[in-house]
Amino acid sequence: MTETENPKPKPEARPGTVPAAPPLLTRPFTPPKSAVVAVPPSMLPAAVAAGVGAAVLVPLDRPGLGWALAGLAVVAAVVYSDRRSRAAGAPRHFTRTSPVWTVAALALLAAGFVRASGWLFVFCVIAAGVTGSLAVVGRRSVHSVFYEVFAVPIEALRSPPWVWRAVRQRAEGGANGARRRIALSVLASVVLLAVFVPLLSGADATFAHLVTSLIPEVDAGTFFGWVLVFVVAGLCVAGACYLLASPPPAADEDVARRRLAHRVEWALPLGVLVALFTVFVTVRLVVLFGGGEYMRRTAGLTAADYARGGFWQLCVVTVLTLALVGAALRWAPNSTRADRVWQRALLGALSGLTLVLVASALSRMWTYQQAYGFTVLRLLVEACEIWLGTVFVMVLLSLVRLRPAWLPRAAVGAAAAALLALVALDPERFIADRNIDRAEHGMPLDIGYLSGFSADVVPAAERLPEPRRSCVLRAVAARLDDDGWTTWNLSRSAARDVLAAYGPFAEC
């Protein structure tokens, strides 16, 4: 009898073994090739409809209402295609967390409706792509969180052969006559609009104004932008449908992680690091209670110089420590009770001490900003430090039961929540307010820096005395173009109302 006819039995898990968490760095889940994945009939019209909607709605030159509406169009297209596929017998792939990730993605895109800051909205669009991918992936991909957060863009790039197969299937279908009649009807409608809209526009100025407000002037750049947005949105819908149409991955024997054989292989390095962090935290406490006089006497530094000299190093230490903790959760043995006790003790101590380092880094940056002023970069770094601290708190919670499977997605969710908190904070206005507060206490104020902000800065700039106020408001007004309905933005609209009340600005 061969081995195939009589396979060896798989060894049973030892009693007390904690189930392994999904690894972070192993190979990602790869759906079957597009040639063997069935094409849902509803995918192609859904992708085309989402592409057309996005091309009409998305303003590429600024944040605006159209981004959120385009996001709704893409979500509606994916949900429509999935429901039609499930009605035809396809399995359900969305999970209970999918609506949460979808709402997060739409909320991030809606930041373009509220805030005018371009750099903030770029981060929101990237984060919306990540949360949107997690909404589509569900829990089917269990091999790599790095794949999950970019699953839709990755599969969008891989989906053109699949989309082309859908086009060929439709072209070879039995309803060619009906499709031809529909195509001729659409073409006739376009021709009629092209003839009668110019004639009616010439007959009435009000109607002409309505037409020009709804239909922008088309040049080569605008046309290229429409095509680009159409292709990107359509492929994103196709990539999402490709993921949903792919069968769930089979159980993979490689998911069982290769853990280190001996406790000393990981406990000794982490124990040394815990001892080092303990010494550092002790020194920090001495500095904290010794005050500025102690720093000047021992190191010859002011508080601001001390903050500037150590913040970035502490940031790097925090990131490296998070990587080490993730590696320990992945590779450290946890099959026995003693292993689990050591893992909880060392990783718990390391995470707790790192939280002290995070607090130290934040206090240093706050001191530095009080001395030299607030900037976008400094605020973003502070937000990243707060996020890292939140992740370490979640690591401590995961050590209670040593089941960190939820940790990677929770960290992504915390990052999305931090970005939404920044949107609510209105960072450019916050930075301007803090710098104006410093100026009121005799500190220098960089008017040129504030003048480079978006319309979000206008409420704070009103606090400035003349001629500084006019310098900032004039610069903002020079960049404040009129908005159409797709580019309408709450912050820019409020800024126009404020600027209209000022009239001519004073000379700087």
Task: Tell me the layout of helices and strands.
Elements: H1 43-57, H2 65-87, H3 98-109, H4 111-114, H5 118-137, H6 145-148, H7 151-158, H8 160-171, H9 176-203, H10 205-214, H11 220-245, H12 264-298, H13 303-331, H14 337-372, H15 376-398, H16 407-425, H17 427-440, H18 447-451, H19 458-461, H20 468-478, H21 490-500
Helix pairs in contact: 1-2, 1-11, 2-3, 2-11, 3-5, 3-16, 5-16, 7-11, 9-10, 12-13, 12-14, 13-14, 13-15, 14-15, 15-16
Structural overview:
- This protein has 508 residues and is mainly alpha-helical.
- It folds into three domains: 221 residues, no CATH class; 162 residues, no CATH class; 60 residues, no CATH class.
- Helix content is 69%, strand content 0%.
- The protein has 21 helices and no strands.
- α1 runs antiparallel to α2, α3 runs parallel beside α16 and α12 runs parallel beside α14.
- The longest helix is centred in the last third of the chain and has 36 residues.
- The radius of gyration is 29 Å and the shape is flat.
